[in-house]
């Protein structure tokens, strides 16, 4: 089987998780990693037996052996790094949120189109087998007419005004950092046609949001969503219809889902995976490239744009 050659942008925590899962991807292999500090890149490369380590991102983008880059840096850097990769002719899988505005998102997608390269936002949740199974149950009418989606994602984050989470210059705030997940799961099941929204938010001393609750009315149902740096939330998703409901524990990294009728669990799915789950999006991106597709078939450019419009709608009510 032909394999897609990956380059990794950033040698931090999220890139570590992604590369750990590449062992479960049969259509791709990691050939290089780049970091702002060459020693960090070399340490990362040695840890994962990666052949090449670069001390600049541009050096990685100029490597003729690399087909696609995975961008795992903080989200305020995504736009410029993805832009540079696209202009160098590389395909891109960029961590979520892919940008921090709808204007940036639109610019990137247009740039990818103009340069005939593949660009996808790494919303890994959309590729998880349990999420796909839950959607199948909904589409089969097993919970009746969809009425509500309830989802939250929050963990207490120690306050550090200079850290990525709380620094406004680094696009800090829980909405960008964690809130993208409940927004994405609501969009996955309810679509993107938002009729109205109510938002309640708290803010850190630096001015960034650190606790956000959202109630949205979609054309197809209602969504009750929350995200927080202040406290550990339930972190489950509930997909509720008039004939039953589905529970997705830790939905953002879901390994299982259960379908209920009233209080009785009537069906359960577990994926039994050994990986963390990043391999599913990497496999899908690789397959798109092997199939000569220049637009993603799951997390589409339009979907990424609508994520940003949803976030902007929330932020306008702060």
UniProtKB/TrEMBL annotation:
Q: Can you give the residue ranges of the Gfo/Idh/MocA-like oxidoreductase N-terminal domain?
A: 4-121
Looking up InterPro entries in the UniProt record yields:
Gfo/Idh/MocA-like_OxRdtase_N, Gfo/Idh/MocA_domain, GFO_IDH_MocA-like_dom, NAD(P)-bd_dom_sf
Gene3D superfamilies registered for this protein in UniProt: Dihydrodipicolinate Reductase, domain 2, NAD(P)-binding Rossmann-like Domain
In its UniProt record, a GO molecular function of this protein is: nucleotide binding
User: Any idea what this protein is called?
Assistant: Oxidoreductase-like protein
Q: Which family does it belong to?
A: Belongs to the Gfo/Idh/MocA family.
Keyword Chloroplast included in the entry's annotation: no
- Tell me the superkingdom of the source: Bacteria
- Keywords, in A-Z order: Oxidoreductase, Signal
Species? Catenovulum agarivorans DS-2
Q: Which residues form the GFO/IDH/MocA-like oxidoreductase domain?
A: 132-246
